[in-house]
Amino acid sequence: MKSSRIIIALLVIAGFVAMPVIGGSAFAAEKVYTVATDATWPPMEMVNTDKDIVGFDIDFLNAVAKEAGFKVKFKNTAWDGIFAGIAAGKYDAIISSVTITEERKKVMNFSIPYINAGQVLIVPKTSNAVLISDLKGKKIGAQIGTTGGLEVKKAKGVELKSYDEIGLAFEDMAVGRINGVVCDTPVAAQYALQQDEYKEKFKIVGDVLTTEYYGIAVNKKSKKLLELINKGIKAVQKKGIDKQLEEKWLR
User: Fold this and answer.
1) Is residue 142 located within the same domain as residue 157?
2) Domain membership of residue 239 as a residue range
3) Which residues share a beta bridge with 74?
């Protein structure tokens, strides 16, 4: 009786060994990575009326993850601490309209670029300003720690007013507290061209101030994740999914 039980047990074990292996394990599940985003930057990342994080970046990374065979969980994170968080291992990656810069590349790795979004100047429709320099002696808003703020700092005779959220800068401009806002092109289009309360008040002026590319940031040690993300981005771009998302969110 005892010996027959042993034989049955061995057969059961053998059955598990013989099971087809998918992704390296009979019970392999898709890896879930935590990704930080500052959801205050429409239409790239924002919180909707149902309290869900949505936007171009969110749809884009979900598509990338699907193509590369992993899943993502988004974590709404304030911009002023978002880079320190990835260095501390609080999350695996960042997708938050992050411009790839040489300075940032020193402390984190970036995916291949996924969208070009230079800085532009937005002013009230009553303004004659075309360039930042046209606003000498006046205040220009930008989100803290962004390349938009760096562009304002380069200009002589203007005062930079920094904001935790870019939406606050547009609110201040609407009531006359500042005279211009510098931000990424997709965000400028959202506020100046699409948003009902602002599209009759604001305009985008002048040329694009910079050539900038967004990338997905990962910890320097996360080489495997970086490879997966790049694989997914290439697949999304090859299939034209990124262009479909641009039509959905940025046009």
Assistant:
1) yes
2) 32-115+214-249
3) 35
Say whether both 183 and 145 belong to one domain: yes
Mark 52-72 as b/e (b = at least 16 C-beta within 10 Å): ebbbbbbbbbbbbbbbbebeb
Cα gap 205→153, rounded to integer Å: 18
Q: Which of 34, 197, 41, 212 is nearest to 118 (CA)?
A: 212
243, with CB counted inside 10 A (0-12, 13-18, 19+), is exposed
229: burial class by Cβ within 10 Å (0-12, 13-18, 19+)? buried
Residue 2 predicted with pLDDT over 60: no
Separation of alpha carbons 167 and 40, rounded Å? 7
Number of folded domains that form the chain: 2
- For the segment 117-144, what is each residue's pLDDT rounded down to a tens digit? 899 999 999 999 999 999 999 999 999 9
- Nearest-angstrom CA–CA distance, 140 and 136: 10
* pLDDT of res. 8: 41
Scanning the structure block, which residue is given the tokens 């090859």? 238
How far from the centroid of its chain's Cα atoms is residue 151's Cα?
20
Region 88-105 average pLDDT: 94
